[in-house]
Inverse folding.
């Protein structure tokens, strides 16, 4: 099967050789409308399109529908292992539906965070997925909402009730971590939180305090690291160890990178994990089983978060309406070698 000469195959070529109308070809090759065509026809159209080397013209479709077929995605730090699987989830949902992702990385800078939304809207993206929300920072979102832009908050909100939020059930994950430590006999617990202006850090800290209330004779406190990094976690744990007073037997870290910093601090001070101090992380990024000891942590379904955020956004684009709903995906505690029975006092 071939197309005359070397010209590019068109939708008319596919329709003629598959013996269907070109509107059927369009529906069959679009994941959003494929269900309107019989499975046998979809298979035939896809086979003919592949043989002809036909590629749908997204630009022409965008002109017909007044759509750019592009989604802007705002990420705080693409070098952090937590976010690439989220972006993959977004792409896995959007690409089969003909959408392109325009990625903006803010380097965790509030100034950049405020600055990236207007240029994305200027490029006429069909919607935004924003994973960089800072608590009580709403100006860029308010401006986007005022011009009718569709958006979804992902993982973090911004203290705003303007857009839907898709996140993991962080409170449930923290409660499971605290319950696990309580079963091991831990009563002296510290939560090393990330910056509390981030909604995720605030949620996890509040959940830690609430969960510890149910532990008899628990001595629990929250301390704040200045960033969600290994170095910040190590510095904060250094202070916990050296500031005097009763040393905790267990630490619940704001994320896995902070937990890695805690492990480094323990080694530097001649303490063992879990013999002297048990450590629990959060997120279950790609390599916590390779920590030493392997890290007990709360698993967040990152790939599914990205897919659900994309799904919610496309539903809002299709309907023309959005409600500021919250969708929480389940988290789970993954127990590894960094937690053990509380050391005897």
């Amino acid at each position: 099967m071939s197309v005359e000469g070397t010209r590019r195959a068109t939708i008319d070529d596919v329709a003629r050789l598959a013996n269907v109308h070109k509107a059927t070809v369009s529906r069959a090759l679009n994941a959003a409308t494929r269900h309107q065509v019989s499975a046998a026809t979809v298979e035939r159209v896809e086979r003919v399109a592949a043989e002809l080397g036909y590629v749908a013209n997204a630009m022409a479709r965008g002109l017909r529908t007044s759509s750019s077929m592009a989604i802007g995605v705002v990420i705080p730090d693409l070098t952090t292992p937590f976010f690439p699987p989220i972006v993959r989830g977004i792409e896995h949902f959007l690409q089969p539906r003909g959408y392109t992702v325009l990625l903006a990385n803010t380097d965790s800078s509030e100034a950049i965070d405020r600055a990236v939304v207007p240029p994305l809207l200027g490029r006429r993206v069909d919607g935004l997925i924003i994973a960089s929300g800072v608590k009580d920072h709403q100006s860029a979102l308010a401006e986007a909402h005022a011009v009718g832009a569709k958006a979804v908050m992902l993982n973090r909100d911004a203290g705003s009730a303007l857009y839907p939020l898709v996140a993991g059930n962080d409170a449930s994950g923290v409660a499971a971590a605290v319950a696990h430590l309580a079963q091991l006999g831990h009563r002296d617990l510290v939560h090393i939180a990330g910056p509390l202006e981030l909604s995720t850090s605030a949620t996890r800290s509040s959940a830690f305090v609430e969960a510890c209330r149910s532990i008899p004779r628990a001595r629990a406190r929250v301390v704040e690291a200045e960033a969600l990094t290994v170095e910040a976690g190590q510095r904060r744990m250094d202070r916990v160890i050296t500031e005097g007073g009763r040393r905790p037997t267990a630490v619940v870290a704001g994320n896995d990178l902070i937990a890695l910093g805690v492990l480094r601090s323990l080694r530097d001070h001649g303490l063992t994990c879990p013999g002297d101090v048990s450590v629990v992380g959060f997120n279950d990024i790609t390599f916590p089983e390779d920590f030493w000891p392997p890290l007990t942590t709360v698993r967040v379904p990152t790939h599914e978060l990205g897919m659900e955020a994309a799904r919610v956004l496309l539903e809002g684009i299709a309907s023309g309406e959005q409600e500021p709903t919250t969708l929480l995906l389940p988290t789970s505690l993954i127990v590894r070698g960094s937690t053990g029975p509380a050391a005897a006092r």
Remarks:
- The mean pLDDT is 88.
- DSSP finds twelve helices and twelve strands in the chain.
